[in-house]
Design goal:
- This protein is of the alpha/beta class.
- Among the domains are: about 130 residues, Luciferase, domain 3, CATH 2.30.38.10; about 210 residues, Rossmann fold (3-Layer(aba) Sandwich), CATH 3.40.50.980; about 130 residues, 2-Layer Sandwich (GMP Synthetase, Chain A, domain 3), CATH 3.30.300.30.
- Helices cover about 35% and strands about 20% of the residues.
- The strands form five sheets. The protein has an eight-stranded mixed sheet.
Length: about 725
């Protein structure tokens, strides 16, 4: 739309919603009206001033002379050398923890909600669901957190745990997980982290490979142990987290573990309080964590992360988030066994923030485990900071669009106009979309969306997988806050690149964090070189203080992807393909193992195609597959059940089961057409658009072993499970 048309639309919208605005202003008194009018006058002036000094041309990263393999190496432009520690003396996680707890001893640290009631409801098809009524957050101070960690550490030693032996934590995210890990660090005990969703074989492999002697778990995981106890010869002790929401009958599970010393977490703390042990503090080069990734192929690999790696990432991220401190509230819900969440909590803790624990099943008022009519975690906690993964943001976007579509009429038109106006403001095309108009849109259109996550979020970071640019911008506008992308791997302790607070661009992962360098190395075979125009491209290689020691008990794989250069700098070869923008920001554009060459010589990127097709409202999850002996690709998709069933009702299609609908030619055709449309919107070539597809009725979850805990595809497992479906698509 031209600017003139924008003026007309602006006046039209103001007239139409003025009466609603007056009601809003009355609620906030006459001063609210005066303030809003003043804001309407001065905001365009401020915005014009900001535009005159736009940050988009600022160099966020600059070239640097570094050793190792030839390539283009960049560092963060704000620092002349790599930073290693957040402050003097904080060279390990244990030292950082102790110093922060002393500084913020009376501030809130960790919080969990109190259980008011629990009930099990039965749906119409006989399935049972647990519903929780949760109360306010109950907080402990930093001082108490330190005391509990010290008591737990002493209790471990009193139980007989030897300092040179490993402890494993096998549990969902909760405050006790963090406390247990900090207790281990104070005795220089390496923690083995294992995803709660890991299957039995992978769990046994991880525990046996690291010869774990003490296992810490929650009650849900405790119930898995009797069936595999005979396969765990190194385990001597089990410590379990108490759970208010566990059936009393489940308490008997402890009786089946008599051959191990089994105590509750509270009992170990009590044991430590009465038998204090002197700490054995680690050095920065000691291994803090062996983190088992939920890899996409074979058994998981254990990455050895040192104390120095963790504090380097924390030091770097602290420089990126403005005004981080005790006034911030962070909502913790992703798996602590994932490096993204562990690094985030160390960052928040280092700044004295309050950390409130949640879960994907209790986060919002409409989450699966929240009793109807009661509040979800976000509504009670009202966080200011949170991290997430693209799959969750995609679901939020789809949920919002679904609600807008259901309301229709004026509500739908207002949303669409408001979204477009905010988009114009971000692009600098319309100053009127700032000031009074922004106040109106925010309060009448976007406020209900923001209330989903508590209404106080000031920064959100997405990581774990590439975030599609349209989703990033959609969430950015609807929540009214920066939605940054972070890039890192377990092998880089989550530290590689991070979008900066003042960067409004989408689709990029920002400049290198100041704890590391990022280098692009030409990949000639794939057609990506550092001499490419308009931007240099190549494999992403990360070097610096966040690079981990390698894989536990796997020198062959370690030597394959880790290299030490002539200057002693350690580099990790990620396998991802990126490009540097003119301002030094990195964009991830491909992955080497996801590149497939078709029969006629065209290269396609499966990940790029999946990200584009995932924007279809019909798609819950999707995997693209390409057989190199053919000249086209195909797709397996899990459809959004609600959306597909609504389409079927409107289209008059009769079916008895959802599986039957997924096999319907008309349903497959409808979803396929939506994929074709999404592909065109994303600018994909014809050979990148799946020619055929199949719909699969059952969702892909970490429990099924088809996606990782970060919800990334396990491509080999999917190919194996659905080999018959893929065969049919090509024959």
């Amino acid at each position: 739309m031209e600017d003139g048309g924008g003026d007309c639309l602006n006046m039209f919208c103001l007239e139409k919603i003025w009466q609603n605005y007056v009601s809003f202003a009355k609620e906030y008194s006459l001063y609210g009206i005066i303030g809003a009018l003043l804001l309407a006058v001065i905001s365009p002036l401020i915005f014009s001033s900001i535009n005159a000094h736009k940050t988009k041309n600022r160099k966020r990263a600059v070239p640097v002379d570094a050793g190792g393999e030839p390539g283009l190496t960049m560092r963060n432009s704000r620092f002349s050398s790599l930073i290693q520690f957040p402050w003097d003396g904080a060279t390990t996680v244990a030292a950082l923890f102790e110093q922060v707890c002393e500084k913020h001893s009376k501030d809130r640290s960790l919080g969990m909600r109190k259980l008011i009631s629990r009930e099990v409801v039965e749906s119409g098809n006989g399935r049972k669901f647990e519903k929780l009524h949760l109360g306010e957050y109950v907080w402990q101070t930093y001082g108490l957190t330190f005391e509990r960690a010290c008591s737990f550490a002493s209790g471990l030693i009193k139980m007989g745990h030897e300092r040179d032996s490993h402890v494993a934590i096998f549990s969902d995210t909760r405050a006790e997980w963090f406390i247990a890990a900090q207790g281990c660090f104070r005795q220089n005990i390496t923690v083995v982290t294992i995803y709660a969703s890991l299957g039995e074989d992978a769990l046994v492999h991880s525990l046996n490979e690291t010869q774990v002697s003490t296992l810490i778990c929650d009650f849900k995981q405790l119930k898995k142990l009797p069936a595999i106890s005979s396969r765990l010869p190194s385990i001597k002790r089990v410590i379990y987290f108490e759970d208010e929401a566990v059936d009393a009958a489940d308490g008997g599970i402890v009786d089946h573990l008599k051959h191990w010393t089994t105590l509750s977490f509270a009992e170990v703390e009590s044991l430590g309080r009465t038998n204090p042990a002197d700490p054995t503090l680690p050095s920065s080069t000691d291994v803090a964590v062996v983190m088992y990734t939920s890899g996409s192929t074979g058994y998981p690999k254990g990455v050895m992360i040192t104390h120095g790696n963790i504090v380097a990432t924390a030091a770097a991220v602290r420089t990126i988030i403005p005004d981080l401190g005790p006034s911030d509230v962070y909502m913790a819900y992703l798996p602590l066994a994932h490096v993204f969440e562990l690094a985030a909590e160390v960052v928040m803790f280092s700044a004295g923030c309050a950390i409130g624990y949640s879960s994907a099943l209790t986060m919002t008022d409409t989450s699966n485990k929240i009793k109807r009519g009661t509040k979800g975690d976000a509504s009670v906690l009202k966080p200011t900071l949170m991290i997430t993964v693209p799959a969750i943001l995609d679901r939020i976007r789809d949920g919002v669009l679904k609600k807008v579509e259901e309301k229709g009429g004026v509500a739908k038109k207002l949303f669409n106009v408001g979204y477009k106006r905010r988009l114009m403001a971000i692009d600098g095309k319309w100053l009127g979309a700032w000031g009074l108009e922004r106040l109106l849109w925010d309060n009448f259109v976007f406020k209900p969306i923001r209330s989903i996550v508590g209404g106080r979020i000031r920064l959100m970071l997405s990581g774990g997988a590439p975030l599609y640019a349209d989703t990033q911008r959609f969430i950015n506008i609807c929540l009214g806050v920066p939605i940054g992308q972070g890039y890192g791997l377990t092998e880089t302790c989550a530290g590689a690149a991070f979008s900066e607070f003042d960067d409004p661009s989408v689709g990029r992962v920002g400049p290198p964090l100041p704890c590391c360098y990022i280098k692009l190395v030409s990949w000639e075979e794939g057609g990506y070189t550092i001499s490419d125009s308009p931007m240099p491209r190549g494999e992403v290689v990360v070097g610096g203080h966040s690079i981990t020691k390698g894989y536990y008990n796997n020198d062959e794989k370690t030597n394959e992807v880790y290299k030490v250069d002539e200057r002693g700098m350690r580099w990790f070869y990620t396998g991802d393909v990126g490009q540097f923008h003119p301002d030094g920001c990195l964009e991830i554009i491909d992955r080497k193992k996801d590149i497939v060459k078709l029969q006629h010589g065209e290269y396609i990127s499966l990940g790029k195609i999946e990200a584009a097709l995932g924007t279809s409202n019909y798609v819950e999850n999707i995997m693209v597959y390409a057989d190199p002996f053919h000249n086209y690709c195909v797709a397996l998709a899990v459809p959004s059940r609600q959306i597909l069933e609504k389409w079927a009702r409107d289209a008059g299609i009769e079916y008895s089961k959802f599986e039957e609908l997924c096999q319907s030619d008309r349903a497959i055709q409808e979803v396929h057409q939506s994929l074709v449309k999404a592909a065109k919107t994303a600018g994909l070539d014809k050979f990148e658009t799946p020619e055929k597809m199949a719909l699969l009725p059952d969702p892909w979850t970490p429990e099924t072993g088809l996606v990782t805990a970060a919800l990334k595809l396990k491509r080999e497992q999917l190919k194996a499970k659905f080999k018959d479906e893929l065969h049919k698509l090509y024959h």
